[in-house]
Hints:
Layout: H1 2-80, H2 86-106, H3 111-151
Amino acid sequence: MTDSGANTARVSLRTLLWLAIGILVTLFAVSAAFSVYGRLAVRAAVDDLSEQLLPAQRAVAELTTSYVNQETGQRGYALTGEPQFLEPYDAGRRDAAALHTRLDTLLAEDAAAQEALQTTVEAAETWRIRAAEPEIPRAATTRANRIGSRRRPGRARCCSTTCAHGSRH
Length: 169
């Protein structure tokens, strides 16, 4: 009887050992599967980031620059009346139109981003219609008046009776 009891214990120990090895192999396989799945998910996120989000981020930065250029050109022209100050305004308008198209394509699958882009486009258009477009002809008229007043005989270039250098006119 003792012999069969020791034999049973040996079989049980062997079975227990194989069971432990099986559990470890199963855990290793499950861990490897989750690792592969995680790597694939990270790879998909990196692809999405590099193909869509980073180009869109760059385009948004360029769009911001084009809006700043438009405002700079409009303000420069309003202050000086010099036509060369309209170059950044015109270039900014062209760039913004191209960037709107590019962003529409890049953000086609993102409804929230499309809505934000549309809001931005509408705000820029409102600024252009209400502020920039009326101010540009007004600055041109002011410049023409200043040039005309300079050409009148007997009139000083400055608007006061005493020039900056102290001469009386």
